[in-house]
Design a protein that fits this description.
By secondary structure, this protein is of the alpha/beta class. It is 33% helix and 26% strand. The longest helix is centred in the middle third of the chain and has 17 residues. The N terminus is likely disordered.
């Protein structure tokens, strides 16, 4: 355990992440952020409706939380598939346009990440707008820097981070967590993107894990919880914990393991039929 402790002590996120600014340029940057009533400001672009309600827009952050094996990654797969293909998927995930999605997986092996790409390609028909990366081999600092380089490279509409805890050495360190969340908010503005973060929840209270979970709760446009049905373990429930504006109704989904060899998520109330997947939802 000692090497890990030493690594945390030596880790200085501010020095590694932020470039120092001279006072003159910093003041200029601050003054540019003044907002007046006569300014012409374009509202953030909405990219998706969930269950008929506008919920996902650029310049915002969303969160998916759930216990291990709750199928939250399958829920994210439906979310990403609709965005990548510009689909109305199961009449629950209604993309308002085709979006370029950069997805960074920090937990799974390369072959497991590839299964996700296969599911998305099956639902969409192609993976032209999907840029999926397996960042498990890197440390938290390297993952942060890698994602920023990939944002510059691909210029996506949406960034998905599965899971955000692996961008942090200590998920209960308020300074480190605040710095990482601040960097995500900076990406929101600089790259004009929506950022979706996936995080485990606590077994005891059901809240998002660690101080990074608290930060995610405070910054989210919408927080989604995925839970496994206690009576039928093959079913998972998708629900909004909280969000801005009108709330959405929850719904159930399952994984159809008979459809291909990698499992396809399907909403229980509709199933996977041709009529439930359209490229022109509006």
């Amino acid at each position: 355990m000692q090497p890990y402790i030493d690594e945390v002590k030596m880790f200085d996120l501010e020095k590694k992440v932020e470039e120092p600014k001279d006072s003159e340029s910093f003041l200029k940057d601050i003054l540019s952020k003044r907002i007046q009533s006569t300014d012409v400001i374009t509202s953030a672009e909405y990219l998706m409706k969930i269950d008929g309600v506008k919920k996902i827009s650029k310049d915002n952050i969303s969160g998916f939380i759930g216990l291990a094996k709750s199928r939250k990654s399958f829920a994210v797969t439906m979310f990403v598939s609709a965005l990548v293909g510009g689909l109305n998927l199961y009449n629950k995930f209604q993309a308002l346009k085709k979006c370029k999605v950069l997805a960074a997986d920090t937990e799974q092996s390369a072959d497991d990440v590839q299964l996700v790409t296969k599911r998305i390609k099956h639902l969409v028909g192609d993976e032209v707008n999907l840029f999926m990366y397996a960042l498990k081999p890197f440390n938290p600092t390297e993952r942060l820097n890698a994602i920023e380089l990939l944002l510059i490279e691909h210029k996506p509409d949406v960034l998905v981070i599965d899971g955000i805890k692996d961008l942090i050495y200590n998920i209960n360190d308020p300074v480190e967590c605040t710095n990482v969340m601040s960097r995500l908010q900076k990406w929101n503005v600089e790259f004009d993107i929506h950022i979706c973060c996936v995080l485990h929840q606590n077994k005891g209270d059901g809240n998002a894990r660690g101080h990074i979970g608290t930060e995610l709760n405070n910054k989210c446009q919408i927080l989604i919880r995925v839970t496994q049905n206690e009576n039928d373990k093959t079913i998972s429930h998708f629900e909004e914990v909280f969000g801005r504006g009108k709330g959405i109704d929850g719904f159930d989904f399952f994984v159809n393991n008979e459809y291909k060899d990698f499992g396809i998520p399907e909403v229980v109330t509709t199933g996977f039929t041709e009529g439930d997947l359209t490229a022109d939802p509006f």
